[in-house]
Amino acid sequence: MPVYEIAALAASVCFATGGLFAVEPSRALGAIRFNRIRMLLMAILLSVAGYLTDGFSTLSWAVMPQLILSGLVGIYLGDTFLFAGLRRVGPRRNAIMFALNAPLAALAGVLLLGERLQLWVALGCLTVTAGVVIAILYGRRRSGSDHWDRVHGSLALGLAFGFLAAAGQAGGIILSRPLMESGVDPVAGSAVRVAVSCLALLITYEIQTWRQPKDHSIWTQRHLAMTAGSGLFGMGLGMTLVMFALVGGHAGVVSTLSSAAPVVMLPLLWITSGQRPAWSAWLGAVVVCVGTGLIMMH
After folding, report:
1. Are 100 and 163 in contact (CB under 8 A)?
2. Domains of the chain: which residue ranges?
């Protein structure tokens, strides 16, 4: 059974579920503030889980620099550029650029880690990525989409931020792959990566808002619960599953399968909102299923 590839697919389900939880609190509180609190909650939760499972015993001082760098590149820089691109070019263009993290990770895995993908597996990865892009392009009905697709500022700069977010995600996976293969516990590894990224984000926030009024609006219990749910599924379970998948899976394959969240979100959005995605979006889902089948069979 391809357990590592199944874990990567399960991570995409977690990312999609976490994304649904994130919509309301991120809009009400602002993406940056929401992300800071989400990271802080998950840093605490993953640290407790790592302590209870004795996962921290798998860490040594020798692996810490690369593990910390993995968190800074993959989470801190990746999220920072992701939100920067989101503000400028909207969610659809930003998501398409971010989908490039899969082929970037596959290419880096071949060049830097010496991974070798069978022809059918490589074709499956490209097919999954193409299906994700199709689903993003056609996942929303035309009514009301212009507001979300409006460009603020430079289009080229916004697309560049999206590409840097994808590169950060791919870089974090490439840096994590040798560590997970060497025996680092996935929960403990995720705890360190999230904690370091959270600290970097808090420092950045304090520098940016130095001598400026802070937002002290009160969090409602609903917003706090939904933020915790987003963190639990997206950062807690999702990221830990990706780390586990990297124990034995190729970086490109893991990155590709875990990036299928936009396709997984189609039926979830249909269930929660009652609005059926455009039929053309389901074409992307079919393409993703074909690509996934190619990967699993080979």
Report:
1. yes
2. 3-297
